[in-house]
Amino acid sequence: MKLGFYPGCSLKGGSPEYRISTFNVAEKFGVELVEIPDWNCCGATAAHNMDKELSLSLPGRILALAEAAGLNEIVVPCAACYSRLTVTNHELAEDTQLRENISTIIGMKYEGNVKILNIIQFLDKYVLPHVEEKVVKKFNHDVACYYGCLLVRPHNILKFDREENPQTMDNVITKIGGNPIDWAFKTECCGAGLSVSRTDLVGKLSGKLMIDALDRGAEAIIVACPMCHSNLDMRRSAINKYMNRESEIPVIYITQAVGLAIGLSEKEVGFQYHMVKVKLKEKPITENLVVKKVVQTEPTEEK
Amino acid sequence: MSSGSHHITNNLSGEILRHTEVPVVKCYQCGKCTAGCPVAEDMDYPPSLLLRMLQTGEADLEDKVLRSLSIWLCLSCEMCVSRCPMEIDIPKMMDFLRYTSLKEGKTNPKAKNIIRFHRAFLDSINYTGRLYEVGLIADYKMRSLNMTQDVAIAPKMFMRGKLGLIPEIIKERGKMGEIFNKTLKRKGKQL
Amino acid sequence: MSKIGVFVCHCGENISATVDCEKVAETISKLPGVALSMDYKYMCSDPGQTIIKEAIKEHNLDGVVVAACSPRMHEPTFRKACAEGGLNQYLCEMANIREHCSWVHPRENSTTEKAIDIVRTMVEKVKRNAPLESIKVPVTKKAMVIGGGVAGIQAALDIANAGHKVVMIERDPSIGGHMSQLSETFPTLDCSQCILTPRMVEVAQHPNITLISYAEVESLEGFIGNFKVKVRKKSKSLDEKLCTGCGLCTTKCPNKKIPNEFERGLGFRPAIYVPFPQAVPNKPVIDKKNCTYYTKGKCRICEKVCPTGAIRFDQPDEIVDIEVGAIVLCTGFDVKKPDFFPEYGYGKYKDVIDGLQFERLASASGPTQGVIRRPSDGEIPKKVVFIACAGSRDPAKGIEYCSKICCMYTAKHAMLYKHKVHEGTPYVFYMDIRAGGKMYEEFVRRAIVEDETQYIRGRVSTVYEKNGKLIVKGVDTLMNGRLVEIEADLVVLATAGVANDGAEDLAQKLHVSYDSYKFFAEAHPKLKPVETNTAGIFLAGACQAPKDIPESVAAASGAAVKVCGLFANNELTREPLIAIVNREAPPLYSNCVGCFMCQTVCPYQAIEREEVKDRSGKVIKTLAYINPGLCQGCGTCVALCRSKSIDLLGYTNDQVYTEVMALLND
Question: What is the DSSP letter of C620?
Fold first, then answer.
């Protein structure tokens, strides 16, 4: 099974752990990820904040390249890149005049034949159906699945899972033996692209969600976006400043969690790249360990 | 673009309708957008208030909108539109207000660093096609004259293998230049 | 030779401003068959009508054409005038030279020419008009009221007190509807059940009213004055004649954990149950879906303990046929439940409830005996947040309209809460306050000023649970969008009022129109609020649109008087402008070949099969026969009939062709 792959700037640069865990997991499930040849940056937040046509041209070129290379289904692990590509796909499909304009600017034609999957759609389609039989080490932890803004919004374009209290990542965690806790900040923004220019806001927004996750006893926060990971992991000092306390809770990509469960080593999923060390307590295995009630303050040890 | 049966007015809401199909007039000021906005507290005018200012059609209020910090703090997190009963696409409107604010030279002074960061980011892509983080940070520091920010974190990032020292340059680098010249840098503007 | 009288109206200046009425009258007078042609300023006035009546007598007219406004305005006026003048009313027609001519063209010669053409075609048609007699149809003086809520009860009592028989059908085991679930009603804070139960008892005891509870309409046939309704009496598993209503069975039933519908899920009931203590009839029914005997074949304890042996496990549903002359629809409405709201938890937070559930908490006969308690842990809430417009006025959720009653009942709930929990604080998040009825605005002001309810203008983005509290994230738009976050103990959603379950099915069975929200459609939104487009079926209450008790009661009385008006005649008159299938002498009997395509297309099920038999009883031919009571004269069968055996009285093929030919032959 060959799928196109758009790593985006973060998987090439600041999130090597996401890249290697995604590749290694995909390989175990028989999926070969083929990088789109000569891909460019999608423009992220900067492009659509500054110029409309630029914000459509950059993703437009990527989609045209994918189509030209015969990659009709592509996986985009970064949620922000995924959002840009999907919105561009949608707008070009709706407006023929716009499609022509963009074609002229990028010097390529795009017919609209590329299907775009984010990491949770990829997991839902290619991993979930077979994951249970491949689990060798149950991921027996209470975790907060953090979807962030762009994996399930806007629903009318993405048409996947649901905007309030989405469940796809939670289902994956359950299937690999983990316990996804019920918490209130699943889709609240972490601070997004203001990481450099307004680090204080990232501290506040990411801090708020971290407080909720910690209060409810999460051992780790599971993410599916390198921007969220960066804000929660790399910017930990800003978060600690906002929360006025030190925190050691690790931030783990969903692909890393799946990787661990199917037997990949910590190195193979890239824990060595994290800024906040990943230390997960081993718990005695008890079946049907499901937390239904909200837990007070400190994370508890035993149920 | 069609605008349905809405009458297009001559003011900023009319421009918004014409270019984005977002009907500012439909907003009935329920405030649900503001209530769910993660940065509403930090904005000078929260989203529902911005919409009200646009609805009045008054020139001084429209000017305040374009000069607001709000439009630059907006994270495009899409929470507002997902809960809006009238499904008003505020993120799309915010993008348009940003372009207009830039075009008319009305950007809020407090948003300087945010805009500088965007320009630094795009500059990097213009040059290589893919983000070169070291270049981006250096560029940003030059623009913002903030030499100390993130200095502490850089070594750690390098040790963790997150800071590539060599930029990756795509093959069709010239294409990037073309795209930028036809869009953001049209009419010879500098980044 | 015909003697047609033509009367050209000026209609003040409506017609004469653009049409030369004198010229029209003059030109028409020259046509063969026109005995008299004149113009006049206001034909519909008394003097105008007198002119027609006298002209009929003086000139011995056998046909009248009034060239004036649309027949939808004044056809009945002129037909009545002709009848009074001694001419069969169906020999009078109107030529529309106002809406079809003078109002849509400027003043020029061609406008007058067009008016002349219109009048000329009508004159030619009237030459071929035949005198017709109205159809008389008998009336069954019995009404059916479907739905036993406050509207149904009012309608039934009004009709019964006027001396007519009423059958009331209610699908729940007891009548009373939502009003019986309320604790107190606005704006008087009257105890709801105290004012309703005497009426309920009156219905049960009224000599003119037959109450059939736990029953539904199965099918409907017939037409106004002559409906045949099949009603399914669902099996209660009870012999009602033997049951004394002692209630022993309900206390002994071991299966007590079924969510109670009357308590909106806040309490439980047994499998054999009476919905509430003041139920009418006060006899239990067995819930077959949950009863241990019906599902597993065991138990039967109720049968053992019943002192009169009234339990009948093998009792089947019974279908009864009821003939009535009029039907009043009072099937009421429902409100959305908390699971409708993704941003408020999809219904999984026990302490996020809807307005009706709050009524049950506040009600003295409710699951908490009138003490406001949190459903999760039974504690008394110190901070209650009421969210108005939950679902209503929300196109994104598919409900554009305002549910009308929620502003009022939210204020009421805040007041009831404050009266019971003196140290508590009620908050109301609202967009607007709609308090348009009598004493309504004063009522809301009381909640704010006297009962210290915090009204905050803004909506709530999300509600989530943390540490046993509900975090409510709202905004105060009157403070320029300042965020308001409240840690509430209880959240009450004023959810949207929607059409009741099964409304669409019932409307289709009764051939009553309904809108996209499944509310039943009134015949005219302003002038006919209690009638439907189906003759003989009337509407009252919230089944038409969300409304409060005073409006429902007023509508019910309005519908009742329409029914009484219908029953004031022994016979009903119908217009004879219907289709008929021709009949000839034997051996042809008719041109109809018996294909019955007409029967398939008739929208009113008015076409039957008539067998023509010989003396020995053998069927010679089966012909189409049109029921004069049902036919509405739409003409579909006339156009469709391949053997041209059907004609439409008053618009015969001959008449219509003549009009066309008259237009073409100048």
Answer: E
